[in-house]
Amino acid sequence: MGVEPSLLDVTTYKFTPARWPAGQKLRICVIADIHACEPWMSAKHIRDMALMANELKPDITLLLGDYYAGHDYISRAVPAPEWGEALSVLKAPLGVYAILGNHDLWHGLQPSLPSDDGQAAISALKAAGIKLLFNDAIRLAKDNKPFWLLGLGDQLAMRLGRGRFRGLDDLSGTLAMVKDNAPVILMAHEPFIFSRVPERVDLTLCGHTHGGQINLPIIGAGLDYGRKFKHVYGYINENNREMIISGGLGTSFLPIRVGRPPEILDIHLG
Prior knowledge:
Oligomer: single chain
Shape: globular
Structural class: alpha/beta
């Protein structure tokens, strides 16, 4: 893929969020921004990465959106049933959960195709046995120790004009579904919602930025990411609130990644 075509990192984080219950352990695999298309992100490549994710033996696997191609520099759009079937090999004891991203709602399988409002992605995830969360919360437990998993609608879902968007995210409504004091993990495709996430959320997980995608010495994060977004990549602790932004797998605008190889996250909590 551009300068870094065959690289794939597994980035590991081991920490205990500030309000995470003592002795409660959870291992999370995070996959973000697949942007399925040939030759860059074929169904076979997606399946291989899914199998690599399984080898991490996570308790739960989370997909953070943007399954459709992010640019038209492709030889073929990968139909949703194909990438969905590739993701169907994902396995985790507590399940595999997903949210949608902006590209899944802005256009069809590639940017030059009209939007299908994410319907192909929704169908593909369902067929793969992956639970889609859309402003929803689910209570799970490992070793009889509960936690809440929240998934937001996309924050840039509807394009209203140049630089203007209407989101489908409902943070307050989703948080209202949390009915006890168990810890909370939030999936949100874009990281800029983080400024509104309360301390009640123990960990926010995001994608969207591709970790800058093009990161050059001195210049820094490319594709305007460094100027548009306060937070672009990695672990962030701000006012006792914690977030991890994945560098993701695919690309947007151009099929190039420099200085930020595609990655899967392996997160150990507790």
